[in-house]
Structures are given as structure tokens and as C-alpha cells.
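dude i think i finally got it to work??
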Amino acid sequence: MTINKPELRIINNTHQQETMAELKRLLDSKHMTQAELGTALKRDKTTINRWSKNSREITWDNAIKIAKVLNVHPVEVFQPRQEIVLDKYIDNKFIVKTLSKEEQFEVPIPFEFYKINVKAVQVNIPGNFLHREIFLFDFPKKKADRFSKFSVHNLCYVTCSKSWKKRTGKNNETIGIVRANEDGSMVIINPLTKEPVNENCKKVNIKDIDICVPVKAKYNPDLL
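look at this
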């Protein structure tokens, strides 16, 4: 994956102060000393000490090198890792369920995928290759964006409209592969069984859908 330099909202002394704070935090969290970092980077201890004491700014190129040694994203050298509360999960039926307040917890989000309106759903299927993976979805802010043009043939988060609720008596939130039927309606497929998620998902019309957005990323949070 190519890492591009992000737009860091850090200027003047604030840049150096936050850089210093994050480098010190990262070294502490990895139980690594300044001397050990210097050896790994083949840099003299004076440079590492200056980075840590806010007397020399860390360039982006050096941040990439530091990140490789510490096994973090380069942005973490400048800014804390982004996290959001995980309150949704799916099992092998692919119906989205809500965790109780006591079960909810924070999960890290890769910097390149973080947005204010991002929604995270974790897979809870012990023994399956997807178990513990996080699916990320961008929930639309505008009504016009509620059905993404990239939805068909992709794995999507689908929420039902008022008409769906009225017809089925249920308030389903589903994750599945959206495909078109011959009559112009859609079917929502369970990616594991290759069958409709349930009876209500066999024939779905646009008016039955409130939100339908494709997955933007899948990852295992344990590997971040």
C-alpha cells in the first residue's frame, strides 16, 4: 500500500510539541529506549534525543522510517491513533445487531479510512475466517447519497425504509451482497451461504431501502 503524506493540522510550535509527545508515547508503548530506536534507524543518539525533547522537527520521511521500526502508521508519529466506539456486530446470519452498553468498546481505525460519519461493524463468527474482522462503512450525510451508485454487486450495509418496516413488521439492518433481479428489484445475499439473507431480502425495491452503502474497508483490529 502506498502511503501518501497526510494533511496534518499541526503548525509552528504545536507541530513540534505534539510530535515530541507522540514519539515519547510511542516509545513508551513499545518499551523501546531512544538508544534502541537510534540503533534501528542508524541515527546518532543526539538526533533521537532532540526529536524527543522538541528541539528538532521530525520530517515525514523520517516518520515513515520510525513507523516501520515501531510497527505503526507514520501518522501516529504526529497524531494519536483514531478510535471509534464499536456498537454493532453480525453473526453468520448477517443481520446487524447492537451491542449492549456494557459490551461496547473502542476500536482503532486506519487513518486513511477515518471519517466522522464512519460506521464500524465487527464479525462474530467463531471458527470462520472473517471472525473479529471489522467492516467499515461511510454513512451518508445527504439524503441523495443514501443509495450509493457502487452498491450493486458489492457487500453493503442496508437499512430498511418506513415502507419496509410497515410491510414486514421488522426494522432490519443487514449486511449482504446487493444484486439485481430480472424484474428490476434487488436481492441481498449472505456472502457465506450465497443465499438471500432472509425471506424479506429476496425481493427488495428502492422504496424499501433507506441506506445502502458499500463496504469501504475490511481489517483485523488485532493487526493494527
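The first helix runs from residue 12 to 29.
im so relieved honestly
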